[in-house]
């Protein structure tokens, strides 16, 4: 392991421990146990159904991207590899699941590594768009802002989402200024600038590819349905815990907890996700112990089913690196 990767790993572990300490320092384990004991299994079951509906939408979205290169692909071809990559990200450091999806299943899917990589980039933009939209919507509906958490109000995520939406629908409008910025960076720092310019060219080409015809509106629609279903996971988890006074806060916890995963942490985002998810719930008046129990319950609902499903698929279908990976 390189020194850089070791530093990132230690930083992630340190931040995870720090945020876990923040989570548990002000709650009683007895209160936490009481909140869990009262959980309604019916609502937990509904949350699990919503979880799998959300991933079904994500699989359909990825299939729509891949069918441009391999029209013979079906939903069942893409389901296993996508869940396997999520499972790998949940248990391995450095987002190893992204490498699994980029190189591990290309022969099986009949696609090139470049296609798999650009779909990952498009997914990141689509997911960020949805998280920002849900954040802005939640802040507007609850009449609050995140000044105490992140220093922004509802207008900031909505404006950022509008910018991303414009980029997704009309990437050519952003091509000239983006490439001009890359050329300016190249003059200042030739090495990094050339790499950034290459990445910008690749990203713009990818977005132009997906924005042709009706593909991008369909990708946005599937992304919205996926995140709506995930929001239902957060909401139903709140309904499952009677100790929560405001279970609708799950619609705020969804984007806040998701954005917290951008902070360096351990695989599975232990600590960072839990702290900010609980904070979002307490901001809306929920008791601290119940909010903590809620954060842990949501984390389990999001982590365990995906890890089990993807892990089983990996065991039964070991990955075979593509030629591109073997030459890296």
UniProtKB/TrEMBL annotation:
Highest taxon, organism lineage: Bacteria
UniProt keyword list: Cell membrane, Membrane, Transmembrane, Transmembrane helix
GO cellular component: plasma membrane
Cell wall biogenesis/degradation in keyword set: no
Membrane spanning residue stretches: 42-59, 125-143, 149-169, 219-244, 250-270, 291-316
The keyword Membrane is annotated on this UniProt entry: yes
Subcellular location: Cell membrane
Pfam families named in the record: LPG_synthase_TM (PF03706)
Topology of the protein relative to the lipid bilayer: Multi-pass membrane protein
NCBIfam families (UniProt xref): flippase-like domain
Protein name as it appears in the record: Flippase-like domain-containing protein
Lineage: Bacteria, Pseudomonadati, Pseudomonadota, Betaproteobacteria, Rhodocyclales
